[in-house]
Give the backbone structure.
Amino acid sequence: MQTLTPAYAGRSARYVRHALGASMAMLIAAAASAANITRDEALALAFPGATIRAEQLFMTPEQQKRAAATGGVEVSSALVARYVATKEGQAIGRAYVDTSTVRTKKETLLISLDPAGRVKRIDVTAFLEPAEYHAPEAWLRQYRDRALSDDLGLNRAIRPIAGATLTARAVNAAVRRVLAIDHVLEEGGRS
């Protein structure tokens, strides 16, 4: 039977730790990238069988101010990228693209709404922060069927994410911003 010297055993243990660490990092990165889907995939999941029309709208300065006041969040751009889903000639929902900085890097969400302007689903289409800060799908599901209200916030109707506070804040701000923009745009379309 061969015995290992203490120096060799130490190197061997370090090698195993490094190999396991590298494997875990690759698995986390793969899981995070697998969680990101394309816009087309997200739209198909949100509105199966619907016809999707892309729109680029420009809010007036007044609409921008109203959206910021309504949502209680910054609305820094007048440009709105949205998709309108129709089925058999009837609008069945809208989806908005929201890109914001989480910590130092960008996250892009596709936030889909039902015809009444409530959250239908949230899909992460790009997340450039480290994988450990990625919001889990189960956490994002908390927003389903929610409308804009004072209760739509962290530590209120929405549970925070341990270890990813900045992600939780960024997602919550994005949802509030999209709901407020949708409210202002749809209100303008009805008058």
